[in-house]
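Let us work through a complete example step by step.
Step 1: write down the sequence.
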Amino acid sequence: MTKQERLYEIQKCNFAAYDLLLYLDTHPCDKKAFEMFKELVEKLKMLKYEYEKEFGPLEAYNSAAFGSFKWLDSPWPWEREANI
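Step 2: predict the structure and record it as tokens.
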């Protein structure tokens, strides 16, 4: 997968997990939804780990795991090519 494809997968998984989180705020006893939420959280962790292993940190806080402040190695959002 390309860098953009991996970011898109992370975004989709993060959106679904957050949507379930909001649902669980009002339906905390829904065990099926909670199981789905846990699965999505684990998938999101895996997707982020795989991305960072190949492309570097997604967030500045994760730079500590790389032994240097690699956060600045990537282009800023406005320096990236537009995918329109």
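Step 3: interpret the result. DSSP finds two helices and no strands in the chain.
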